[in-house]
Design a protein that fits this description.
Chain lengths: ~425, ~425
């Protein structure tokens, strides 16, 4: 990109919470910003599980980046993939071979789930990070029910379904609870030859309690609420092998028509191209001003960054932290330009929440802990308020009220082309 | 399927307008119905082009078949692909090799666009029949703009975009008008390095006027309205070759970054497995009671059927006709069971309409012809009223009002994984 009026060029890699909030904080400022993303949309990840469970549509939680940034004349969006950096000549290399020059660089390419060295498990146990993941998971869940219905219609054989969720963090808890509601409520009347409510939903956690970043009390409440929905919670249960159709828990194989992966963190491989030593999860250590060692012009933020903040707190990999970091990285660039000193990062903990099924949740704000319907209401309000774009807020609100009143999700669509063969469950013959 | 209480088994192939309306007409009647479809949803085809142009989301025009039929205990939905028929033993063969017995069979597998023996053109000129088609077309259109923006940002080169729509029937007219609005209004402020309104949109029709099933007056009005939107209408223009990036019109090659195909009819190949002589488009000739020669228990309806109705009118391949045929096929099955004579089909022409961009249309009801905003309002009301499912009606209405007020589509999402390479335009180098 050519320099416009000699204004400093800021390149931002990634349009997640960190990158998008950095871009927004730089809108209208005397810098030329280019936001690079492989996708043309920002994804509101906290609600992805609702897309996977067909409560929401992709468009309701994904906002086109250009749309979000349309009113910022100094912010450009580039649909491209960054693959490497030349820190000496200050260039980002793109997959096409082209290069993008920067004066400041903000790397915010996020993280995916980690399979602990077993990437081959992903095919049989997808994680949930993108809209495509959500649609894939929805398709697998729906196909499992379709396949059981087909078997019942054509052969008269009933088969109860088994769903496994690996990882007892917020995502795993939310997925397990939502699958339970999906099977017990949303789909119950859609399938006439099988009883979808007889599905087994199992949540596996390697540690001794789920939601281990929450208090012990919240963990207990979450486990109770999952139990009320019929989810079997297995703690101290390490998943040691994954195949399509079954998983190995400790030494025992367990049937699993669909397995979902919700554990481990693997930061974007781009971190390894920054020439610094990353941690076990591939995260890049950053100074408290969010820049990397020896390169004050390069910031790493969000799930890619490893940081103990100014108050001595390890900053968690949450959307709230990424947003705050995005804003500070932008602020510190502007501070440089104005000759002011940079600020150090201090994580402002707005609280953490996990929702459990249709109207249950646990929430913690410092020492204040709640659970149940009130926590769920709070969770809903906070998430709708955070959703980017007025239109999405209204649409999501309508969907939720509708889903709540009717006790059913809105659109269980399978949208790729369905070869009959592909609806077979692993390990079973053609039906 | 086992017979329940010796009730006659009706198998319906296809969940489009014909099949779905047959299934609905048989709901609660003393028959066991199995509706077989490769997809789990009914698609409201008349609004597909709005999904292609990112005004609506797939979920707003696609209704899960189970959801639509959930209150009919005697109607089962089977996600499967029918591949052949055994008319002697009255069985439908499925792709998996399994068979489905019937006492009555309704074949309603629809049609696709025909490439006049050049199926290889489809890759570079997709048609619009399914939700997947619509998402694919949306992705191609958006990628073309993204690629031009990328070129402008990285090299400073401006390139105006060329879009070609082949076929001047209602679908082609609707697509061309909607692309014009997309480029002139929806996207105008999203792209900052290129001027999307300078795109060339060309509509090619082999005959001497577009909308040739309408009156000459409506054709003229449609052409005028397209002109107001900046669409170049080329009549008497046969497309004789298609490549990715360009098409041949008569003897001349014309640049086309994206080509869309909206002409020709190819009925489902299932028609050829019914053992009757099909017409040039693969349509099955049916008696006026909608059954095929020699097999009163087999009905063929919708776009697969070729029929001169009781009033001597050739029944058109429209949703309205398919719905009416679906209802009559169901009625005639019930007539058989009750020992009453069958009825013959008479097409009730409710009128035809084509919408042109954001608030223009042409409509004809017998000799009554209108165009412009009033026609567009009427078109909107009729289509929202026809949309299956209350929820979709409300959602679509909200989207439209929103799109109308803000003059922009709602969600220009590209939702598959975007490799940077794949955003290149055909014929250009990497950018």
């Amino acid at each position: 990109m050519k320099k416009v009026a000699n204004r400093p060029r800021v390149v931002i890699i990634g349009g997640g919470f960190g990158g998008l909030f950095a871009a927004k904080a730089l809108a209208g400022q005397p810098v030329e910003v280019t936001l690079v993303d492989r996708r043309n949309h920002h994804t509101f990840q906290p609600l992805l599980y609702q897309v996977a469970l067909a409560v929401l549509s992709p468009a309701e939680i994904a906002s086109p980046l250009r749309r979000v940034l349309r009113r910022a004349p100094n912010v450009h969006v580039l649909l491209a993939e960054a693959t490497d950096f030349d820190k000496t000549s200050r260039k980002v290399r793109l997959a096409s071979g082209r290069e993008l020059e920067y004066d400041y660089l903000i790397v915010a390419a996020g993280a995916r789930h980690s399979y602990f060295g077993h990437d081959e498990w992903e095919e049989c146990a997808p994680g949930l990070k993108t809209v495509e993941d959500a649609v894939e998971i929805r398709t697998r869940l729906l196909k499992a029910f379709e396949s059981a219905e087909k078997r019942a219609l054509l052969t008269g054989q009933q088969k109860s379904l088994n769903f496994a969720v690996v990882g007892g963090g917020p995502t795993g808890v939310e997925l397990a609870g939502a699958i339970a509601d999906f099977a017990r409520l949303s789909l119950a009347k859609d399938f006439k030859a099988i009883d979808t409510s007889k599905s087994h939903i199992r949540l596996y956690e390697g540690l001794d309690r789920i939601l281990n970043t929450f208090s012990a009390k919240s963990s207990r409440r979450a486990e109770e609420q999952l139990g009320e929905l019929g989810v079997e919670v297995h703690t101290n249960s390490m998943v040691t092998a994954v195949e399509c159709g079954r998983i190995k828990v400790g030494e025992e194989w367990v049937e699993a028509d669909v397995t979902l992966w919700a554990t481990g963190v693997a930061a974007s491989p781009l971190g390894r191209h920054l020439g610094v030593v990353t941690d076990r999860s591939g995260r890049v250590p950053v100074h408290q001003d969010l820049s990397i060692a020896g390169h004050p012009e390069i910031f790493v933020i969000g799930d890619m960054a490893s940081l103990i903040d100014a108050a001595g707190v390890r900053v968690p990999g949450l959307a709230a932290a990424a947003m705050q970091e995005g804003k500070l990285a932008a602020k510190n660039i502007l501070a440089d330009l104005q000759g002011r000193p940079r600020q150090v990062f201090k994580y402002y903990d707005r609280g953490t929440m996990a929702t459990i099924g249709l109207h249950r949740a646990v929430a913690e704000f410092g020492t204040f802990k709640i659970s149940g319907v009130v926590a769920w209401l709070l969770w809903s309000l906070v998430h709708v308020a955070l959703l980017i774009g007025f239109r999405n807020r209204v649409a999501v609100m309508i969907e939720w009220i509708w889903a709540y009143l009717t006790r059913r999700g809105s659109s269980p669509l399978i949208t790729e082309y369905q070869q009959e063969e592909s609806t077979r469950l692993p390990g079973e013959g053609g039906i």
